[in-house]
Structure to design on (848 residues):
């Protein structure tokens, strides 16, 4: 039997739908890209709800938004929970927003019930998770955890030539009165709720996914160089046809890398051909490789083979393989996973352990503190689409689990700290 | 020993260079696309030179330009010779223009020397040979020979949305006083001089290429349809990856079709991937095929195999193969070829028989009358580039051969006609 949620389910759903009105698309989706007017409007609305409950808003140099519920020890590293408010250009109502609103609902619930946690509980909305307006994504969490320099992030530009720096300054100008926190303060733990973006929870009729980790990801940019020629006159045996070489390479990669095991994910998603004219032998083909695997050893081995296969099949053309992203798989904190499973069980929600195939800000937080994620189902596994959908009861269940985990972890840490301090 | 040219070599070169000033590019090339202001200005200049020599200009519904030297029998089908005045956007001074100016020089020479031919000799500049502004090319000669309907040609639009019809009306408005000939009148013979656009004449140190024919060409548009998916979540064995299918198809086509024999030319020049994002499994790949062969049987057989190979390697994706161009190879008139070889020999120009790899307006004229082409060398075989170059002496040699062929053919036809009429 499912118990009553520990949070105000109606309020959570109403606020989530109100948020989705900002940047709403005619087809029912959301276009609220990073640092846009839409995101500024979303900040205003979320800050308003936080202030109502007595939470304190602040920001930092990377444009992250923090909403703090004061704890007993204000100087202790806070407990962070949240996700992001930016969306894909044709995104949905839940990717990111569900995690921020569930976290806010959990913090507001604690505030309303006068349950003052051991340390501050801070709801966070990370800047530019999606990376659709400014590439690559996860800028806020990477800057926060020291993965990337703020100066480098500020230099990135959108398709209109606007830099992150300009857009960030505009955001901060719109919230002149908001205090700034130092970038990258110490964190006790991090929790993130997110829709699954896959079909597994729905298929297994589970309400809560206890995320074990995020699969590792490598990306490469490959450039095949040949020589241009006239399609009607250049003899076949004298050609250095970059498209023909690309086709051989791609066929070999799909055949070998794509069948290493059933966990591998291998994708050539973007291809650019030069000069790309019907009657000209192509001189240059550049293409992207997206490689993912839950085990780092398998990921590393596959990466090495990719380079070897590109070199083997390129001649008479030449090939350059440039590694871009190299994000090893990570495992989330076992104690936090156990807390999530326990809370779900207590509340009567069927759970399953699940690996995240997609990247999330939690990947970066996991490097600086114990971190974990809660997945809730999304219809047909569809995400990054306008018809993305999660059931109100599942959003409420996730937020309710968040509240219980917060309480349990804060209690456990308090006794641990007490034991540790007395034993020291 | 090379004899003195039968034409005024200085005048021909000076005029060709003056023509190249119209639409001249900073890098020394020409941008004078079909029906542009540049082509209108080129018409004005060419018509001026023709009028000076007593030739009569006219046009037709397809925007072809005719410059007629009156013959003895004005009612007899005329002898046509020429090429085109339009260029690629980054074209050179010779492709097309050399053929029109050599033809004009030949006609002007006949006029000056009072050598009145048996029938009218008409210099022609065909509308839109290149097909760069309005696709596909050879509109003027195809409309003239009945290959394509003028109404269909008028409907084609350039990148700015301007239709051929609008541009044609503008051209005719600019030359309001020019008489209109009926479209597609009877023609006695057709001759076209053109730069080779290949390296063979230069390599063999030949001044004149006696073109035996134009190799056959087929083009196809192929569309591979799969299903979009998330690169991080969709299991490899459940994918219908359009890019993977394209790579298999392209590899098989290059391996089999590209090695049928040493005469085959097989090119995949243009590729479009949808949605073309690094982390999305491609749902659709469309690509172009350009296939050429001097023998029609081989061309037809290769075309059939292309469709079969696309179907064999597409699953689990689907594939659609749409034939576009189907231009069989053609052989030029043996008597005209013999005349060209004889005239070249008489004037001391080394010749070779040569197959045209590229298409020309002469392909269409060959369907309605005896036709032939003269190639002259171009440096490094380079064409459709701004540094395209032909030597003044080679241009003069080509024009000089034109004059001699005109005289010989006209004499031969006169005696043939006389014999035929007396014998009838």
């Amino acid at each position: 039997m499912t118990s009553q949620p520990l949070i105000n389910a109606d309020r959570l759903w109403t606020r989530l739908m109100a948020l989705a009105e900002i940047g709403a698309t005619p087809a029912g989706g959301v276009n609220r890209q990073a640092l846009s007017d839409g995101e500024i409007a979303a900040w205003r609305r979320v800050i308003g709800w936080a202030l109502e409950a007595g939470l304190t808003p602040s920001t930092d140099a990377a444009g992250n938004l923090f909403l703090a519920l004061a704890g007993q020890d204000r100087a202790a590293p806070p407990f962070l929970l949240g996700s992001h408010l930016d969306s894909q250009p044709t995104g949905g109502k839940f990717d990111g927003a569900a995690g921020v609103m569930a976290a806010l609902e959990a913090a507001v619930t604690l505030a309303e019930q006068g349950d003052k946690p051991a340390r501050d509980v801070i709801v966070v909305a990370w800047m530019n998770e999606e990376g659709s307006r400014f590439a690559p994504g996860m800028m806020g969490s990477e800057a926060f955890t020291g993965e990337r320099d703020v100066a480098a992030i500020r230099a990135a530009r959108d398709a209109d030539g606007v830099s992150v720096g300009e857009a960030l300054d505009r955001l901060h100008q719109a919230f002149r009165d908001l205090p700034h926190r130092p970038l990258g303060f110490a964190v006790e733990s991090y929790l993130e709720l997110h829709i699954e973006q896959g079909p597994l929870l729905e298929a297994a009729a589970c309400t809560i996914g206890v995320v074990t980790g995020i699969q590792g990801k490598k990306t490469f940019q490959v450039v095949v160089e040949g020589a241009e020629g006239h399609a009607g006159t250049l003899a076949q045996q004298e050609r250095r046809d970059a498209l023909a070489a690309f086709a051989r390479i791609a066929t070999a990669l799909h055949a070998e890398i794509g069948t290493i095991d059933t966990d591998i994910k291998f994708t050539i998603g973007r291809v650019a051909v030069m000069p790309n004219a019907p009657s000209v032998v192509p001189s240059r083909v550049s293409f992207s490789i997206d490689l993912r695997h839950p085990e780092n050893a398998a990921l590393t081995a596959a990466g090495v083979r990719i380079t070897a296969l590109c070199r083997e099949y390129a001649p008479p053309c030449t090939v350059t393989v440039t590694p871009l992203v190299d994000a090893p798989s990570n495992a989330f904190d076992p104690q936090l996973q156990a807390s999530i499973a326990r809370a779900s069980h207590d509340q009567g929600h069927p759970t399953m352990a699940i690996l995240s195939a997609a990247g999330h800000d939690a990947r970066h937080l996991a490097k600086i503190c114990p971190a974990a994620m809660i997945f809730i189902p999304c219809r047909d596994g569809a995400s990054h689409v306008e018809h993305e959908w999660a059931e109100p009861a599942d959003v409420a269940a996730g937020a309710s689990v968040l509240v219980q985990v917060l309480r349990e972890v804060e209690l456990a840490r308090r006794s641990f700290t007490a034991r540790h301090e007395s034993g020291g």
Residues 392-423 of chain B form the longest helix (32 residues). Confidence is low (pLDDT under 50) at residues 415-424 of chain B. The domain at 216-327 of chain B is CATH 3.30.70.360 (Alpha-Beta Plaits). The radius of gyration of chain B is 24 Å.
